[in-house]
Design a protein that fits this description.
The protein is α/β, with parallel strands linked by helices. The chain folds into two domains: 2-198, Rossmann fold (3-Layer(aba) Sandwich), CATH 3.40.50.720; 296-458, Rossmann fold (3-Layer(aba) Sandwich). It has 20 helices and 14 strands. Helix 10 packs across helix 12 (264-277) and helix 12 (264-277) packs antiparallel against helix 13. Bound molecules: nicotinamide-adenine-dinucleotide.
Length: 459
């Protein structure tokens, strides 16, 4: 089976490498010359655990190819995947489909024989029909079926997610496309993964519904964490107790500085806009978007409070900048809100991240970059964990303490052992825990939404 993957980013490249490992021949087409140069040299332009080995094996076997030439790859393909970006459109929050439609227009002239064209990108309901309309207009003679095949992989565990999916979802109303897509995913079906064939609209909406639900779970536990702090409960105990309930599940119940990343913020926003457009607004998800935005601002205020009310003139060591561990992706990372707000309020930032520096550096000017946590802690008044990379879970806190000028730790991911930190004399605060009930004299008031907005407006 021959596949053309248009777009070799996080999703396109991982999917292509995994498909080639099934034995299919995959040609990745990308327009970014730097990315393509890396790929042609056999290097992954992104950090994803296990991807280098997978690429190397399949490039050597001649099953994984990279090119800027769309024509031959499309002409030869049984399946053309659209795996280009669908970022948030500036101004109105809808999904920007310009990359998808450009790729469709560019591929159309080269379609030969029966070809399945399918979205892997996350696209709003109705996009497959619109792609079909555009293809028919441009190539009325083309024998083509348009499917929706949304991708559910997570950065950081993308290969495991792709090769052991909870389900593969294919939206199609075409029998031949069903047969081709069934054959394509047979290696996963044989291993017991369920391959679900549904209406195209259902597949498109399911992807947004899944991401919105997960975003809701995160915002829910973040608000429960705030309540835990006020009443003296420990959010980790609460999350673990409710997570044992199989109706709830224990995933996505980790409190933190708000969700970020390449998917949740833009997909939540796009779902809200689609729902409003179809006159079926999803008010609960509109709340999630608001709560998450305020959460990131509230984290900067929390750091300021821990610093005694002001960070002016203080040095802050920031550990972790990427939106989550095990990726170099900085898209919509909470650090992009928190760090500039602290700088604006007069703090000096010393930061480190195991993989994120290359992407973070142009987005976060004015930072002193450090190799590791020990170096970042040098002369710091406050240490803040923003992303819970494993290496920050096992810090040598004594060594950190010896390097710091101050003794405050604000752990936005509950990555550090609170007891150890306190026993070493740190003034430690985590999220939704860490203040035993006895220590709480007054419930801690949450910053009001208005304060948060004026805080941001002051930037
Ligand atoms: P990305 O920005 O990392 O990659 C997109 C790639 O497409 C880029 O390399 C770009 O150069 C290339 N491209 C754009 N237009 C092109 C064209 N006309 N021809 C050839 N190449 C072109 O994006 P991503 O994170 O891989 O996301 C892609 C899609 O997958 C999005 O819709 C996203 O929502 C969805 N998705 C992403 C994830 C994730 O974890 N990143 C997970 C599931 C779904």
């Amino acid at each position: 089976m021959k596949i053309c993957m248009i777009g070799a980013g996080y999703v396109g490249l991982v999917s292509a490498a995994c498909f080639s490992d099934f034995g299919w021949t995959v040609t990745c087409v990308d327009k970014d010359p730097d990315r393509l140069a890396d790929l042609k040299a056999g290097r992954s332009p992104i950090y994803e655990p296990g991807l280098d080995d997978l690429m190397e094996r399949n490039i050597k076997a001649g099953r994984l190819l990279f090119t800027e030439k769309l024509g031959p790859a499309v002409a030869d393909a049984d399946v053309v995947f659209l795996a280009v970006g669908t970022p948030m459109r500036r101004g109105d929050g809808y999904a920007d489909l310009s990359y998808v439609f450009t790729a469709v227009e560019e591929a159309a002239p080269y379609l030969q024989d029966f070809t399945v064209v399918t979205t892997k990108s996350t696209v709003p309901v109705g996009t497959s029909r619109e792609i079909e309309r555009r293809l028919k207009a441009k190539r009325p003679d083309a024998d083509v079926a348009v499917c929706s095949n949304p991708e559910f992989l997570r950065e950081g565990s993308a290969i495991q997610d792709f090769t052991h999916p909870d389900r593969v979802l294919v939206g199609t109303d075409d029998e031949r496309a069903r047969e081709v897509m069934g054959r394509l995913y047979k290696p996963l079906a044989l291993r017991g993964s369920s391959v679900m064939f549904v209406e195209r609209e259902s597949a498109e909406l399911a992807k947004y519904a899944a991401n919105a639900f997960l975003a809701l779970k995160i915002s829910f536990i973040n608000e429960i964490a705030d309540l835990c702090e006020s009443v003296g409960a420990d959010v980790q105990e609460v999350a673990s107790a409710i997570g044992k309930d199989r109706r709830i599940g224990d995933k996505f119940l980790h409190p933190g500085p708000g969700y970020g990343g390449s998917c949740f913020p833009k997909d939540v926003s796009a779902l809200i806009r689609t729902a409003r457009e179809f006159k079926a607004p999803i008010s609960i998800i509109e709340q999630v978007e608001r709560v998450n935005h305020e959460r990131k601002l509230a984290m900067a205020i929390r750091i300021e409070e821990a610093a005694g009310g002001s960070v002016r003139g203080k040095t802050i060591a920031v550990l972790g900048l990427t939106f989550k561990p095990n990726t170099d992706d900085m898209r919509d990372a909470p650090s992009l809100v928190i760090v500039p707000m602290l700088q604006e309020r007069g703090a000096t930032i010393r930061a480190c991240d195991p993989q994120g520096r290359r992407q973070a550096e142009p987005l976060l000017p004015g930072i002193t970059w450090c190799e590791n946590a020990n170096e970042a802690a040098e002369g710091a008044d406050i240490l803040v964990v923003v992303t819970e990379w494993n290496e920050y879970r096992a810090l040598n806190l004594e060594a950190i303490k010896a390097r710091m000028t101050g003794n405050t730790i604000v752990d936005l991911r509950n990555a550090i052992d609170a007891e150890t930190a306190r026993s070493l004399g740190f003034n430690y605060s985590g999220i939704g825990r860490g203040n035993a009930a006895a220590e709480i004299s007054e419930p801690r008031p949450r910053p009001l939404s208005a304060d948060l907005h004026s805080a941001q407006a002051a930037k």
